[in-house]
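name: query_chain
kind: protein
chains: 1
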Amino acid sequence: MHAASLGEYEQGLPVLEQLKERLSDHKILITFFSPSGYENVIRKKNIADVICYLPFDKKSHVKEFVSEINVEIFFTVKYDYWYNLLEVLKQKGTKTYVISALFYEAQSFFTSYGKWFVAELQKNIDWFFHQTDMSYALAKSVGLTKSSVTGDTRFDRVKQLQNQDNQVEFIADFIGRDKAVVFGSCWQAEEKVAEEVFQVSPYAKLILAPHDLKRVQYLKQIFPDAILYSKIKDSKADFRARVLIIDSIGLLSKLYSYADIAVVGGGFHDAGLHNILEAATFGVPVLFGNHYRKNPEADEMISADGGKSFENTGLAADFVMFLINNEETLRIMSANAQKFVAEKPNSTALIINKILS
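structure:
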């Protein structure tokens, strides 16, 4: 499996796990392009026999790399295409796929110079498993017809979260009987939302999990009375505090199980919206900025009334406070968010059945 970064890895992992169950005598190689994927996965227990970076997509480099391995099945996730790699793999008889494929109008395939890229994919990809009907239609419009709509594998992934042990020590004590707002993978914009909510809503507990842990000290300046999660055991923390800062990694998906409302980071700028499905699977309405062009699930969740996007942080903060004070609207959006995830098809099963057929 090739994944550009951590998000694509998570998207492809359900397929990889199922393939391993069905083809237990095979070994697994995972390649990355971005350090954010490689560094996160290499440090944890994982399914791979080998994890490495891909060499740059120069034919001589790729040939040397591929000569060391016998690849029976290869898939890339979403839209990270390495054209020389695909060609060399195909020449060796590898079956090649794109998992959770996502085509959108701004891609090079739909420009005057895009014919070469399309021809390469026609020649070297056996099947595209599309996330959306729109992606399927766009690919078909340029002649990429070996494809089907199977949905987004991340839904399969987040459904599994409900069955794991989601307990996080001290969180229930911190929240008490108040409403809990979790700011997941928050950037500066989401920190601003938290600050505005903090100033006007005394009956909410705020849990901030920053995207970059370097922001922790800055958050302590904004919220000087906040508790650091790493210090709870030592300091006999006063749970009357209204802000908890998560200064460690790996807890976020479990924290969402405690939330009444989630504000997910990345949507107020072009860095990209983080995973909104991890919160929705627990029946938590999700709020985010409106920069999410490459996240079709955001539009779907808004249409299902399980989430909402905002042009600026002030409007987002206002809506957080509205939900805190309007129990019925919060209940409806919570139910819609959980239903939105629960009703999605088992994308992984559809993909596995096709690959193994």
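note: The first helix runs from residue 6 to 22.
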